[in-house]
Amino acid sequence: MWWKRVEAPSRQPFSFMESRAGDLSMSTSRFGRLLKKALEDVSREDYPLLGAKLGQLIRNHDHTFHPALYGADSLAELLSAQPDLGYVERREKGDLLFHHPDTTPLTGSDNVSDTHSEPPRFLKQDLWQALVNPHADTAAWFDLKNCRLHFPAHNDFDPGQGDEPERYLQVPPIDQKVVRQWASAFIGRSSVEDPTGLDEAIDAPDCSWFRTLSAQLEQRGLLSAWTAFHREQVYHYWDSWAQSHGIASHIGFARPGQARRNQKRRSPQRGLREKLHQVIDDMTEDELRQLLIPARFLIQTNR
Length: 303
Description:
This protein has 13 helices and six strands. It has helices spanning 16-19, 27-39, 51-61, 67-80, 125-132, 176-190, 198-203, 209-219, 223-244, 258-265, 268-282, 285-289, 295-301; strands at residues 49-50, 87-90, 96-99, 141-143, 148-150, 168-170. A hairpin with a 5-residue loop joins strand 2 and strand 3. Helix 6 packs across helix 9.
């Protein structure tokens, strides 16, 4: 018997983007719903979750989800857009770790089982100021040659001088739009019964919005939680920026025990100065015009 050979139709490589045309731009909204559903099966003790494990958990709820087709960068971007569900950490070997939202970001341990036993980290005070209070005198620059942070406020350092200006990389301050997004995410995860006034504070056009929001959260007993959440996001911001430029993020953190010693040694005047800077940052232009500053300080500033 003669058999007629039939050519099998050529099979194209499977693509999640093709399987759901345009749905990969499903992006953050649909991915967030899948992630939230997947995390319902996870206990606090199971964190941090490896990227592969997390991908399998999501796939259990949607078999069309193939994390390998995204790649680490795209998957990390999707996870980073869900701060109320947790935060993502990029490891040196390219692995992803997804942390519980209530844990201190990025302990720096390469051993997943040891992440909860690591001591808390403290960002260097000067770097913190450069990130959250962006001014010319609080800027931070990274020396790519010597792997050091420089702060112009402490010395006569000028990245524009010298024969190698390209060796210095400025650490970008955190945009206020990003901080407002953090605030919205915090309010969403806190399940505030009466959010009256909170959204208005976040959307306020003037620079005093942060102080107004903090005052309202304090009235609701949420100021400590907000402060911790804000600190975690700042830490994560620094870690992400450092890793994206191939910089060891631990350079920006005080050595174990150093932060506690620095707090004990810090003079009352230093604490007062920091509070004053924060108040001035939040003032309106009319309020700033009412400040009385001795002329000698202005002369010293312009030298």
